[in-house]
Write a structure and sequence with these properties.
CATH superfamily of the largest domain: Glycosidases
Helix content: 25-40%
Oligomer: single chain
Number of domains: 2
Shape: elongated
CATH architecture of the largest domain: Alpha-Beta Barrel
Distance between the termini: 25 Å
Largest sheet: 8 strands, parallel, barrel
Strand content: 15-25%
Bound molecules: ligand TNX
Number of strands: 17
CATH class of the largest domain: Alpha Beta
Length: 486
């Protein structure tokens, strides 16, 4: 039970061996559409690697020795929504959870206990009890600076699921591109969707495509949080509709990487109509509770206008039946106690949000910004946080103590943003995200008292074989004593 990542809450090995039998079944109690989908998510990678048939059956009766048992239990409330218990003994591996989400988290552990690519299909016996530390374990992908296709986002969702992450925040709009079709404002994608950093072709999701992402995420118990960045970072929208500009004239589309130069014309009522329409359509596409309104780096929006805008928009989000989250800057406005803020660089402003009762998602740039270079030799990425961000930097911090002065219970969790100014391919995306996202997944999941860098780096070294098996293009950090060869 040694290379588990993120590290479970409790692991008690018992010195025996379980062997997955060639005739093993995956036994399901109860067997419903939902639990059957979870069983398939376990069966598929195991069938591929082992060549075993691994049929899924309803109920455990008649399951041969060496089978996998999955069950929903009503008896163990201590596991919470995402917790699970896994008992491995020589006869069987038995996974139980209170909720399907817990079962889904647990099958990731089952996969990690068995070999990555080839037999013998053995696992050590013992008992694991596990549940996440934080309810928000997020990754953010910037699809605005460069566009990433549906299949690429689905790949990201698979890798997130494997690391027990549960929030995908999509940064859907920025100066360089508008990536979600809005029926009531079609030029947003027609014009604003056509550009990207460096003059690439851009792209956007139709609402049907976006729904496919949301569904794919939902099947992995991952909530999609869509972000439309307002009232700054809006050149793509301004280029699409002249009436949103203070001058009444549309600028050209933008392909550079400066920030802070664009703003909706906040003295024009049409800007509010625009925001309301967009948020309404986005809410209808969003089964999750949150809509992210951006709100960052509004260097060309007067402060008073900004605060008024955030307050009105926050009410619109509520009217659309959703909870408002924005970057820490929204702490300058009067917030509803339900609204959440995402800390990234300015502690003072984030604390203003927390002082109003807002919960915080912690994304300190020096620890979680996956667009920062690993070292001077990293060919892509930025360096504005003032140093490099190696794997250990991502690991050695705590979301609840990073910002002194936060009220107890204010931290919803952690999120790792990946801004895409400097790359456009899936291979580069993976290179920047991995293995740092492995470290951050553990920060988000594992109790602080259980975490240690020296233990983590050894487990990550073994985890490398699993990343290899999934074809992940990760950065082979010199900090990790990799077992796999490159
Ligand atoms: C700051 S973080 C930004 C983004 C950039 C990023 C680059 C934040 C809320 N705004 O617009 O892409 O830095 O690291």
């Amino acid at each position: 039970m040694k290379n588990l990542l993120p590290l479970p809450v409790s692991v008690t090995p018992s010195n025996g061996t379980f062997v997955l039998a060639p005739e093993a079944v995956i036994a399901l109690t109860p067997s419903t559409d939902e639990t059957a989908r979870i069983a398939q998510a376990l069966a598929e990678p195991l069938r591929r690697a082992s060549g075993y048939r691994l049929p899924v059956q309803a109920g455990a009766a008649g399951a041969p020795k060496g089978s996998l048992l999955l069950a929903i239990t009503r008896l163990d409330a201590g596991l919470g929504n995402e917790g699970y218990e896994l008992r491995v003994d020589p006869e069987r591996m038995a996974l139980t959870a209170l909720k399907p989400a817990g079962l889904f988290r647990g099958i990731q552990t089952v996969r990690q206990l068995l070999p990555a690519t080839e037999g013998p299909w053995r696992a050590e016996t013992g008992v694991i009890r596990d549940a996440p530390r934080f309810v928000w374990r997020g990754f953010m992908l910037d699809v605005a600076r460069h566009f990433f296709k549906v299949e690429e986002v689905q790949r990201v969702l698979d890798l997130m699921a494997f690391h027990k992450l549960n929030v995908l925040h999509l940064h859907l709009t920025d100066d360089q591109g508008w990536r979600i079709h809005i029926h009531s404002w079609p030029n947003l994608t027609k014009v604003g969707g056509s550009s990207a950093v460096g003059g690439g072709p851009g792209g956007f999701y139709t609402q049907e495509q976006y729904k496919a992402i949301v569904e794919y995420a939902r099947a992995r118990y991952i909530t999609v949080v869509p972000e439309v960045d307002l009232p700054g970072h809006v050149n793509a929208a301004l280029a699409s509709y002249p009436e949103l500009n203070a001058s009444g004239q549309a600028p050209a589309v933008y392909t550079g990487t400066e920030v802070g130069f664009s703003s909706l014309a906040l003295d024009r009522e049409i800007s509010y109509k625009f925001a309301e329409d967009v948020l309404r359509e986005l809410a209808a596409l969003t089964p999750g509770p949150f809509l992210h309104i951006g709100g960052d780096e509004t260097h060309s929006t007067p402060d008073e206008d900004y605060r008024r805008f955030v307050e009105r928009i926050q009410a619109l989000v509520q009217k659309a039946g959703k909870v408002c989250i924005g970057w820490e800057e929204i702490g300058r406005a009067r917030l509803l106690p339900t609204s959440a803020a995402q800390y990234w660089v300015n502690g003072e402003t984030a604390l203003k949000a927390a002082a109003q009762g807002s919960r915080l998602v912690m994304s300190p740039a020096t620890k979680t910004y996956l667009d920062q270079k690993y070292n001077a030799g990293t060919p892509i990425g930025l360096t504005w946080t003032g140093g490099y961000t190696e794997v250990q930097d991502c690991y050695d911090w705590d979301p609840e103590t990073f910002l002194p002065g936060l009220p107890a219970g204010a931290v919803l969790g952690m999120e790792a943003p990946l801004w895409s100014e400097t790359f456009s391919t899936l291979a580069d995306l993976e290179f920047m995200a991995f293995p740092r996202l492995c470290a951050l997944a553990e920060v988000a999941w594992t109790p602080a008292a259980r975490r240690s860098w020296t233990d983590f780096r050894t487990r990550l070294a073994g985890h490398g074989a699993r990343l290899n098996a999934q074809g992940v293009n990760y950065y082979p950090s010199y900090q990790i004593p990799w077992e796999a060869s490159f």
